[in-house]
Amino acid sequence: MPDVKITRQSDTARTLSSAPAREREFDAIRQRAYELFLERGEQESNELENWLAAEREILGMASADVFEQDGAYDVDVSLPGFSAGDVEIMATDTEVVIHAMMTTTAASSDDDSAEIETSENEVYRRFRLPTPISFERISAEFNDGVLHVHAPKSKPTSRAALAPA
Predict the structure, then answer these.
(1) Packing angle, helices 47-59 and 20-39, rounded to 10
(2) Would the pTM count as exceeding 0.90?
């Protein structure tokens, strides 16, 4: 049986991280956000923009734009390498959730051996919309690696005033 590396620490006041890889990702995001801060002239009003840009670069988060126009929300999500069959959209009256997943397999062989490498790529984006949408009328198109979702807003319902009996 192969040996498993176990890290023990006697100081009980200090806790060990259960995800050192995740800590390295966050450190890389912090570093890149700081670099963007410096590159953009050290403007303190751009902290969130710098952090989100660093997350996209480090974690590979799909970029997205949300527009409100003509009584609808339009969501464009960049999904390079995916096909329409890899994408699933879920909608409620206040949210649009996009999930894309693909598995690729590459095989090679020679006279003595064969190699198969499988990788997965998954994207999950959730958009909370400020006003209700008519989720029954949502539509989507997928062209050239860009998903376009059109979500018409719900029409306000009018309620008749009730007269006292």
Answers:
(1) 130
(2) no
pLDDT cut 70: percent of the chain above it: 80
Q: How many CB atoms lie within 10 A of CB 96?
A: 23
By the 8 A CB rule, do 121 and 102 touch?
A: yes
Separation in Å, CA 38 to CA 24, 29, 54, 57: 21, 14, 13, 16
pLDDT of residue 11: 36
Domains annotated for the chain, with CATH where assigned, are: 20-61 (no CATH), 62-155 (2.60.40.790)
pLDDT, tens digit (0-9, with 9 covering 90-100), for 20-46: 656 777 788 889 889 999 998 888 877
Q: How many CB atoms lie within 10 A of CB 54?
A: 20
